[in-house]
TrEMBL record:
<feature type="domain" description="Peripheral subunit-binding (PSBD)">
    <location>
        <begin position="186"/>
        <end position="223"/>
    </location>
</feature>
<comment type="similarity">
    <text>Belongs to the 2-oxoacid dehydrogenase family.</text>
</comment>
<dbReference type="InterPro" id="IPR011053">
    <property type="entry name" value="Single_hybrid_motif"/>
</dbReference>
<feature type="domain" description="Lipoyl-binding">
    <location>
        <begin position="52"/>
        <end position="128"/>
    </location>
</feature>
<dbReference type="InterPro" id="IPR023213">
    <property type="entry name" value="CAT-like_dom_sf"/>
</dbReference>
<dbReference type="GO" id="GO:0045254">
    <property type="term" value="C:pyruvate dehydrogenase complex"/>
</dbReference>
<dbReference type="InterPro" id="IPR036625">
    <property type="entry name" value="E3-bd_dom_sf"/>
</dbReference>
<dbReference type="InterPro" id="IPR004167">
    <property type="entry name" value="PSBD"/>
</dbReference>
<dbReference type="Pfam" id="PF02817">
    <property type="entry name" value="E3_binding"/>
</dbReference>
<dbReference type="InterPro" id="IPR003016">
    <property type="entry name" value="2-oxoA_DH_lipoyl-BS"/>
</dbReference>
<dbReference type="InterPro" id="IPR000089">
    <property type="entry name" value="Biotin_lipoyl"/>
</dbReference>
<dbReference type="InterPro" id="IPR045257">
    <property type="entry name" value="E2/Pdx1"/>
</dbReference>
<feature type="region of interest" description="Disordered">
    <location>
        <begin position="145"/>
        <end position="176"/>
    </location>
</feature>
<keyword id="KW-0809">Transit peptide</keyword>
<keyword id="KW-0012">Acyltransferase</keyword>
<feature type="compositionally biased region" description="Low complexity">
    <location>
        <begin position="159"/>
        <end position="176"/>
    </location>
</feature>
<dbReference type="InterPro" id="IPR001078">
    <property type="entry name" value="2-oxoacid_DH_actylTfrase"/>
</dbReference>
Length: 496
């Protein structure tokens, strides 16, 4: 059956069954027993039948457990084509546009804009096929709980409490709880909100939805027919405090300049990205035996070569040379270019370097794929493009998932040296410090310190040392990084 039709939508509604083909059968299948059986069993129903398509919160990264639904680009009733962007979702790495391969009409948005901490797999919207009645789409029962949790009721307005207001609050309390929650009826979050705002019993409104579900239109019609107004919820006034007793001699005044009980503080919510970064760094330090090795390199030759390239209109940064030198060193010491998985070291077939980029929401590591085969200026262009997309939150998952080695460079911020935490399942990360002047017998030098953090379960001290030696050799002889590229002529001019 799967070979004769691309898709069959089926919906059981009470005692009726309706089958509908979305695509034509192939000619050889039109006279098949399956086709004749479906024709003989087709039953027409006057009830509306929908091929409902559920849209769930996707998992957009390996570490994603929940996400924030930032914004919907489509609204209810809009026609959806394959490839259309439906909404923006903030993951633990970036803000990603969610599209769909389905076609139809967006019938119901279950999770609204700016909803935080929506778990992966939660129903966020419903689609129906073109021609179906999208306004009366049936909302699944399981959608009520996530939506209600995602939309907490607004806080009550504070107003001066009077005896009359207090009595109205007491009366409102009598209509709360189960009376306003639906009396056993299936209600959505918008319906529940209306019932609470107008203090209406669900049992007072006649439901018209499928299976006795109470719809928002039913409540609005009831409000209009009875000319109801919103009920202002008034908070009861607190009891008058007892007369203040004399201060205890042991009580000492707060020190000057310290925070007071009524101090004005600014709450900054923790982003998904920072939460996941903290979790992964903690796991890394607790589960990976970190070892460290540091080496100094003379980067004076890079400064001279950059000036030569600049005169030819070619702009490259020190960071571009660092990435290229790391790629060459990884080729020569392949055990560093690997991942650690299931207590096994797995060598990577290509040199894919993750470069740490700071964004307003946290640190992310876009990947320069095949860095060993790229020229220095190609690496520079790639890093600029990825860094720009990272800061705008437009990185796609394939641009930051994976990688075989990481580089974190704080040299441009004046940090002389530091150690970085390994990004699992990678086995090593290199921390790069700033260039600093050093006096020597042959004259002033510019030295740069790098520290390799590596998994001592997977990498020996000898292998870590060999990698750093290969890196230093490439950095101190930058013309070797230009050989065989479109910058080769500049390299020859520099060498001679």
């Amino acid at each position: 059956m799967a070979t004769t039709a691309q898709k069959i939508c089926c919906r059981l509604s009470k005692s009726s069954v309706t089958f509908r083909f979305q695509s034509l059968l192939r000619p050889e299948a039109r006279n098949s027993k399956c086709h004749k059986y479906l024709q003989s069993r087709q039953i027409n129903s006057s009830a509306a039948v929908y091929g409902t398509i559920k849209l769930d919160m996707p998992s957009l990264s390996p570490t994603m457990e929940q996400g924030n639904l930032v914004k919907w680009h489509k609204k209810e009733g809009d026609t959806i084509s394959a490839g259309d962007v439906l909404c923006e979702i903030e993951t633990d790495k970036a803000v990603i546009s969610m599209d769909t391969e389905e076609e139809g009409i967006l019938a119901k948005v279950i999770i609204p804009d700016n909803t935080k901490n929506v778990k992966v797999g939660t129903l966020i919207a419903l689609m129906v096929e073109e021609g179906d009645d999208w306004k009366n789409v049936e909302i699944p029962a399981e959608a009520a709980t996530p939506a209600a949790a995602a939309q907490p009721p607004p806080p009550p307005a504070h107003a001066p409490a009077t005896p009359t207001a207090a009595s109205s609050v007491g009366g409102a309390a009598a209509h709360s709880g189960a009376d306003l929650a639906g009396d056993g009826h299936l209600v959505g979050p918008s319906v529940k909100k209306l019932l609470q705002e107008y203090h209406i019993r669900a049992s007072s409104v006649s439901p018209s939805g499928p299976g006795g579900a109470l719809l928002k239109g039913d409540v609005l019609n009831y409000i209009s027919a009875n000319k109801l107004d919103k009920k202002v919820q008034v908070a009861p006034s607190p009891a008058a405090p007892k007369a203040a007793s004399k201060p205890s001699p042991a009580a000492a005044p707060a020190p000057p300049g310290g925070p007071s009980a009524g101090g004005n503080y600014v709450d900054i919510p923790l982003t998904n990205m920072r939460r996941v970064i903290a979790k992964r760094l903690t796991e890394s330090k607790m589960t990976i035996p970190h070892a460290y090795a540091t080496i100094d390199s003379n980067i004076g030759a890079i400064a001279e070569l950059r000036n030569t390239l600049k005169a030819d209109g070619i702009k490259v940064s020190v960071n571009d040379f660092i990435i290229k030198a790391s790629a060459l060193a990884l080729q020569r010491v392949p055990r560093i270019n690997a991942i650690w998985q299931n207590e096994t070291l797995k060598l990577s077939p290509s040199v894919d370097i993750s470069v740490a980029v700071a964004t307003p929401t946290g640190l992310i590591t876009p990947i320069v794929f095949g860095a060993s085969y790229l020229s220095v200026d190609q690496i520079g262009n790639t890093v600029k493009e990825l860094a720009g997309k990272a800061k705008e939150g437009k990185l796609q998952p394939h641009e930051y998932q994976g990688g075989s080695f990481s580089i974190s460079n704080l040299g441009m911020f004046g940090i002389s040296d530091f150690t970085a935490v390994i990004n699992p399942p990678q086995v090593a990360i290199m921390a790069v410090g700033t260039g600093r002047p050093v006096a020597s017998m042959s004259g002033p030098l510019t030295k740069m310190k790098v520290t390799l953090s590596y998994n001592s379960s997977a990498i020996s001290d000898l292998e870590a040392t060999r990698f750093l030696e290969e890196f230093r050799h490439a950095i101190e002889h930058p013309q070797t990084m230009l050989a065989g590229t479109n910058l080769d002529s500049a390299a020859e001019a520099f060498a001679f």
